[in-house]
Amino acid sequence: MPSQAKTADRYREVRSRIEDAAVRGGHSPEGIHLVAVTKNASIAQVRELIELGHGDFGEGRMQHFLQFAAQIEEFQERHRELGPSDALVPDAVRWHFIGHLQRNKVKRILPLTRLVHSVDSLRLAEEIQACPLQRETPSEVLIQVNTSGERGKYGIAPAAVTHLIDQMDTMMNIRIRGLMCMAPFGEDPEDSRRVFQRTRELFDELKSSAIIGEGFDILSMGMSNDFEVAVECGANVVRVGTSIFGPPAEPEEDAKATASSGS
Ligand SMILES: *Cc1c(COP(=O)(O)O)cnc(C)c1O
């Protein structure tokens, strides 16, 4: 199908743009992880990426997340039955929860999630801490920082991050792996640079401070419009949707297409 070929091409292009940006910023390209954001993706596109060997996917909407996670698990099962000829299909697909996480959704999301990118309050952290998991290892999370100070945006103020991390110090079921931020949406990716740089500075400060435990090493920033700037500024996780899967389908266009094909 032509649309699938496009997905693979766009995916490869995003990867090579990440590599170029890493080199420009003086970072090792191997150290940068791409999370493919599925919010506008079809399940066929997700499967195609998995067949290319891609393993990290991000979603922020509860229903979509649960539906995709279940369907992909089935797909993985079938591939496992086919055996070692499917070497390119990764054994484990890792789901990242990148959206605003409501406390009453924690119990359903957590068991399916490798990394929660969006912890931004003590109450949410407490809910995660209290969530009984079937596994021995703690839940891994990032603290979402509202570096730009935009009102109405999720994330905790930079000045409050240290205090939150301090308060989470005794939560044995949680491991804080780093920070996540979103730049305000703008036409010019250069507008994001200031926000990414500030977040990088905060990340470095925390890393060298005494309040941080081991494994604080993930800086998640950069989306379709600004992931190259983010990589230059030191992001080691970027979350890219539209540049891989294409723009969201226009409902009106769909309706028109259906109407005209019927006549
Ligand atoms: C949608 C979304 C992305 C990906 O955005 P694109 O512009 O489609 O690449 C990344 N991070 C978060 C938190 C998102 O909600």
Q: Which labels suit this protein?
A:
263 residues; eight-stranded parallel sheet; TIM Barrel; globular; 15% strand; disordered C terminus
Written account of the structure:
There is one protein chain. The protein has 10 helices and 8 strands. It has 263 residues and is of the alpha/beta class. It has a single domain (2-244), classed as TIM Barrel (Alpha-Beta Barrel), CATH 3.20.20. The chain has an 8-stranded parallel sheet with strand order 7-6-5-4-3-2-1-8. Strand 5, helix 6 and strand 6 (174-181) form a beta-alpha-beta unit. Helix 1 packs across helix 2 (43-51). The two termini are 25 Å apart.
What is the helical fraction, as a range of percent?
40-55%
Determine the CATH superfamily: Alanine racemase
The tally of beta strands, per DSSP, is: 8
Using the 3D structure, state the CATH architecture.
Alpha-Beta Barrel
Evaluate the radius of gyration. 19 Å
Class from helix and strand fractions:
alpha/beta
| Mean pLDDT over the full residue set | 89
Number of helices: 10
CATH level 3 topology: TIM Barrel
- Helix and strand run: HEHEHEHEHEHEHEHEHH
What is the strand content? 15-25%
Distance between the termini: 25 Å
CATH class value:
Alpha Beta
Q: Which ligands, by name, code or SMILES, are bound?
A: pyridoxal-5'-phosphate
Biggest sheet strand line-up: 7-6-5-4-3-2-1-8
Domains, number: 1
